[in-house]
Amino acid sequence: MVLQISNGHAEPEVNLKPSSNFSAMERLRQMLKLPAARAKQNPRIVEDHITKAVQSTGMESDAWMFVDERLRECNSVRDKAILDDVQKYFWTERKPHVVGNGRVSGDDNHAAVNGNTPETDKDPEFNFNPFSIPASYFNIDLLTDSGTSKLTEEQNQFKQAYFEKVPSIEVFSYACSTPRRDLEKAMKFCFGEQFNFYPALQGRAAEKMLLTALLKSGVLEKGCCVVSNRPFDTTKGHILGHGLTVKELTPLSSPETYYSSDTPFLGDIDPAVFDSEIGSAGCLLMTMTDNGGGGQPVSLKNLKLLADRAHAQRKLVWIDGCRVYENACFLKALDPDYSDKSLNEIVKEIVDIGDVFTVSFKKMYSHSGGGIFINRKTNSRILTQQQIDSMDFTIMSITTADYGNGFMSYSGLTGDGIVEIMSGMALCLNEAVVARRILEVCYVGSMLHHRFNLPIISGGHALYIAADRILPCIETAHCPAEYLNAIMMKALRIRGCGLGNLVYGGRHVSGPGEVAYSKQLPMDSLRLAVPREVYEQEYLLQALSTLGRAYQKGLFEHLSGGLTPLDYVDNGFYHFGAKYHLNEEDEFNDVVSRMRGLDSGTVTDTATFCSIM
CB within 8 A of 25, min separation 6: which ones? Predict the structure, then answer.
């Protein structure tokens, strides 16, 4: 065996047998014949040479050949018909294409759901916070789609086939395991060769480590502002927690805007608004899709324009790509310039615009995992090589000490978890899979809107209800979104998550006993995130139709109690551990009782709800 060293000279075979006389880093340095100073200054040198050394032995595994073949197979899928349906919905009447039985066309692979309501006497102490109520309480859990999806049969087959090709010792090894090396290759296939990739336990860990690295390397400074279309709630929390500020530049998409807009790209930032803010900011953060703004897509035209203007002023561009494949599917369906490109080509073009980007694999058909990507090509734009090396060292040091995933180790994930991530990425490359999910969500939202006139909008992954329209007499200070969620949890055993004024409105005490909001949001949004492959869409529609009937019958129009959050702090994380005071207990119990008495009715006759396009 001959190891190729970076200076081009060949070194003789070295003894790889561990020795107790040397530290792990010293053994790696010896293996690669690297000066200790270089290895200490930039640990990625060690990692890169390990990978090259293993590859040079001809040990490319059958497992990777299988993964590569599967990724290419999924990337080659073309389904113009279902993409046309996405286009028709978002460009015309925003009504999904349905077939005769009222279902979105395509194969179903959903678990049956038990619709029985739990006995009332088994209720836990009801505290109004959806994050604090046991999952067993609910029939339908729409709190999030992050890590809550059901693995498809294709994913289970993927995992089984992979493990048949890899000895178990290679799957569960701490360092340089076969799945870990294959994950690195899969990331290059999906996102490009130009990135330093750092796996993490989930997206939250990734963005926290990234922010630490950006500050330590001097790319960002304490007190600077991050401008964004609209960050995730936890992303906002991490930004604030690192001594930075954040400003959202897009309004929440209200039902009025959603159904009347001339463009489907409601995640875009108005360039004039951006120009007025970027000069005093340190970073542009573009969330794709715009989760807090209604799961709406961002156009590449807008992203490129803003990124060019940011870079012209030496500002960092950070892309939150947690749902970047959904955004790519929107682009392919809605932008003629991208209609002939694969999702993989579109995603690569998106992420290469950024200096850094983060992902959560939990939103990409997996149950765990996240990642940081640093664009090495950005040296000509924003990041210097010294800053990239500094960020590299910081992230790998943090991950090694805190998460156990530096230096090509197992990423804090099991081998099984890593293989699951790769199986999920394969599905993300399949445009038929991604488009069908978008249509399933849109189908339910459209039917509820057109049948009951429910003030609701559909995003790529979730439904967003304008709770302030449903509860017109509830003051903003008394949390319409959280109150409606509490009613649905108690009456229907369905939970969502408020993502409106409490999270993004800038709530603050303006005087003795008085509360004000620094930002005027067009709606108080209750998000219902739909996990993939878990619920049949007709079952969802049937259950949520009870809410529509209650709204249609006027059950909510005179409610005036609401909830008062206790010890509120505007830090992006408050709602996870929030405590609320119920202002009118009798009112709450009455509306819950009346909703339980409603018949949800049948929803299979879709011809009365929605025209077939």
Answer: 39, 40, 43, 46
Residues 6+ apart with CB under 8 A from 238: 204, 207, 208, 211, 572
**Phi then psi for 549, rounded to 5 degrees?**
-65, -40
- The pLDDT > 90 percentage for the chain reads 47
Quick one: how far is CA 524 from the chain centroid? 21
Cβ-based burial of 316 (10 A; exposed 0-12, middle 13-18, buried ≥19) = buried
Q: What is the CA radius of gyration of the chain?
A: 25
Q: Which tokens hold the place of 232?
A: 């995730």
Cis status of the peptide bond prior to 289, with omega within 30 of 0: yes
Check residue 126 and report its DSSP letter. -
Give Cβ neighbours of residue 252 (< 8 Å, ≥ 6 apart). Answer: 230, 292, 293, 294, 464, 500, 504, 521, 522, 523, 525
Given its phi and psi angles, is residue 533 left (phi above 0), alpha (psi -120 to 50 degrees) or beta? left
Q: How many CA atoms lie within 13 A of 572 on its CB side?
A: 20
CA atoms of 578 and 562, how far apart (whole Å) = 15
Distance CA 460, CA 467 (A): 20
Q: Which residues, in sequence order, are CB contacts of 308 under 8 Å at separation 6+?
A: none
CA atoms within 13 A on the CB side of 154: 20
Question: CB count, 10 Å around CB of 461?
Answer: 23
Q: Which of 96-105, 331-340, 428-437, 558-567 is least confident?
A: 96-105
Residue among 492, 552, 567 nearest 526 (CA)? 492
The residue that leads in pLDDT, 175 or 438, is 438
Number of H helices, E strands in the chain: 23, 19
Which CA distances in Å does 448 have to 19, 86, 442? 67, 18, 10
In 3D space, the residue among 348, 45, 376, 51 whose CA is nearest the CA of residue 187 turns out to be 348
Q: The tokens of 333 are what?
A: 């369906």
Other Cβ atoms less than 10 A from the Cβ of 52: the count is 14
Q: CA dihedral in degrees (473, 479, 484, 490; nearest 10)?
A: -120
At 248 the three-state DSSP class reads strand
Residues 335, 352: Cα–Cα separation, whole Å: 19
State the pLDDT confidence band at 41, using cuts at 50, 70 and 90.
Answer: low
Q: What is the pLDDT of residues 278-300, one digit of tens each?
A: 999 999 999 998 887 788 999 99
Q: How many CA atoms lie within 13 A of 144 on its CB side?
A: 19
CA dihedral 382, 385, 386, 392 (to 10 degrees): 100
Name the pLDDT band for 235 (thresholds 50, 70, 90): confident
pLDDT in tens, 502-528: 888 778 887 777 788 887 788 898 999
